[in-house]
Design a protein that fits this description.
The chain is an alpha+beta fold and 166 residues long. It contains 5 helices and 5 strands, in the order E-E-H-E-E-E-H-H-H-H. A hairpin with a 2-residue loop joins strand 1 and strand 2. Bound molecules: FE2/S2 (inorganic) cluster (FES) (2 copies). This is (2Fe-2S)-binding protein.
Length: 166
């Protein structure tokens, strides 16, 4: 019989608990146990980046991480990027403005990745943007609008600096 673990972590600012076997993936914990289906699962092999969430602010592939290893940490999923009143974050606004998505399946991973990228590098060059999103695959957009979205998000964030909306 598989051992079940009590897992306590903070998700999108809220303390959450779940009981799960040691082999439970973080992506499955988020989607199935906590009901946060915004985190998408594509390849389940660490290749596509769809499942990217932020762990203590750093992007991680939730399909490669065991849920138990996230215990005690802070996870931010795409559901946690908007403001508490539902106002989209600057990164989300930029993707909408610049049509940075088509089917949207890859979008949660991109939004998390880009949020972390712009925290680290607020005014990235085109090469830094390309490098920053190189771990995320999109089958629809050809990336042009995604790249434009990242630059637009940087502008929006620069404009909102000091307003606490990052
Ligand atoms: S589902 Fe995790 S990287 Fe593809
Ligand atoms: S928008 Fe469809 S996979 Fe990226």
């Amino acid at each position: 019989m598989e051992e079940i673990h009590d897992i306590a972590l903070t998700v999108n600012g809220t303390p959450r608990t779940a009981r799960a076997p040691a082999r439970r993936l973080l992506s499955d914990l988020l989607r199935h146990d906590l009901g946060l289906t915004g985190t998408h699962v594509g390849c389940e092999h660490g290749v596509c980046g769809c499942c990217t969430v932020l762990l203590d602010g750093e992007p991680v592939r939730s399909c490669l991480m065991l849920a138990v290893t996230a215990a005690g940490h802070e996870v931010t999923t795409v559901e946690g990027l908007a403001g508490t009143d539902g106002t989209p974050s600057p990164v989300q606004r930029a993707f909408r403005e610049c049509h940075g998505l088509q089917c949207g399946f890859c979008t949660p991973g991109f939004l998390c990745t880009v949020t972390a990228l712009l925290r680290e590098t607020p005014r990235p060059t085109r090469d830094q943007v390309l490098e920053g999103i190189s771990g995320n695959l999109c089958r629809c957009t050809g990336y042009q609008n995604i790249v434009a979205s990242v630059h637009r998000a940087a502008e929006l964030l620069a404009g909102s600096a000091g307003e606490g909306t990052a």
